[in-house]
Amino acid sequence: MLERSNMIEHLRATYIMYKWIRFAVCLGIVIAGYLLTWLSGGFPPWAWSFLVQVAPRLPALWQQHGEAMLLPLVGLILLSITLLIAWGGLVTMGIRIISHWWQERRELQHFDQDVQKAQDLTDIMQQDILHTCATIPLPVPTTSLRTSSPHNGRPQASLSHILTPPAPTTNQPPKAPIVAPKITTVLEKKREATPIIPTHRSASPVPTGYAAFNNFNYPVPSHLLIGTGLDTGIKRKGKPNEDSLFAFENARTYDTGTKPVGLFVIADGMGGHDNGQEASQLATRILRETLLPALQDGPEDEIFSELLVEGIHRANLALYQRNRQQQRDMGTTLTAAVIFDTTAYVANVGDSRTYLYRDSQGLSQITRDHSTVAQLVEAGAITRDEVYTHPQRNVIYRSLGRRASEEIDSFTVPLQVGDILLLCSDGLWEMVRNPQIEMIIHASYPYPSQISTMLIQAALNRGGKDNISVVVVYVKAPPHPTAGWG
Q1: All structural domains of the chain with their residue ranges
Q2: What count of other Cβ atoms lies within 10 Å of the Cβ of residue 111?
Q3: Which of 154, 257, 395, 439 could form a disulfide with 372 if both were Cys (CB 3.0 to 4.6 A apart)?
């Protein structure tokens, strides 16, 4: 029964994915309708008309022919029923095709509207910032204001001398920057109705379910803007959210300037709703406890890639031991990124992903999925588009908690000003494919809160079949004209 259900789902997904199959099905229905009309003597079929004529005369025919009339009568009834089923099937298929076509058009219209709204909101915020620049008297900065026009056509202005105090002169005492560092832990977050874009960082105000704290006694400028999103999805609404995410950003001050530091984690739990939620939260907590001390107070030459992998190994061992002790079967996928100075150290287990968006190059996937369909793509057995519809698309061969030791992939990514890191669970990328993700980021660039809100909404618009979690990190220019990246 399960195999039959999977086969039907696979056929349905194949029909949706390939336009030529949809065309062939429509053509087949038209041909079948023509042949059925020709074979049955037009529409309505002659058998229906003849049955309607014979029905009132049945008593008279019984008196004349007796039992001899039963066989042709039964044959006429069976033929009428067969034609009714055939025509009913054709009409039903036609209605379903028209309904699917109409729904697809509406989804495309909604998607275009969402992207246009994001673009309009981006333009409005850009105009507000430029208007602020024109109305506020500014001291003459040590470096001139430069406006560039990248390939997306939107002007990008360096406003660091507006967002931070001017450099101290010989007649002025030094002033501390006005941005206070924050650590933001995200375990449960309701989707915001409208994006909020504050002046200095894009993370939304801390609601219930956040934990925010400050472990530093001095203010430091921020190099990173963060947007987060977490939603249970439509299909799992009212059930525990099995996704957990964590976002921390700050900057460490050295004699040569400030360097950004950050830790960003997304975990997608498995093993039932309660077990999945516990697994993702436990893995996130252990990774946070392992890495935050090094990010806050560790030496400058800390080997963060090895530390990140070690933290994931600890999380895996903790999950494995809890499964053994409590006779449970919980686990989680995980992707995490540590940012230090101009480098991102990325690691993953499972099919939660980390992407890099660079405005001049577009979107690229950093991590590799540890799934059956990813292996099939590498072997050339299926195409990348078939990943989204394959019956085994949710089968993964690596996750935390299954074995005492698990292999972990790690990557080192050089960063540039203007880059965006996107971490997400499969609840996003299975609903919103890479070209649409890139389109949304491009339309909302460079506002992470807006990007995360738009990505969550896009996944919900396409069905929201799974929990959805998103972390968006934007690497901005140094907040002070004289400060650099190390």
Answers
A1: 2-108, 178-475
A2: 18
A3: 395
259's tokens:
């360097």
Taking the C-alpha atoms of residue 392 and residue 376, their distance in angstroms, rounded to an integer, is: 10
Q: Given this model, what pLDDT does residue 189 score?
A: 37
pTM of the model: 0.61
* Per-block mean pLDDT, blocks of 10 residues, the chain (486 long): 56 63 82 84 80 82 78 84 87 84 71 65 59 47 33 36 36 39 37 32 32 36 85 90 94 82 95 85 94 80 86 94 90 96 94 95 95 88 84 89 93 94 96 94 93 94 93 83 48
Neighbours of 232 (CB within 10 A): 22
Which CATH number is 178-475 given? Answer: 3.60.40.10
How high is the pLDDT of residue 141? 36
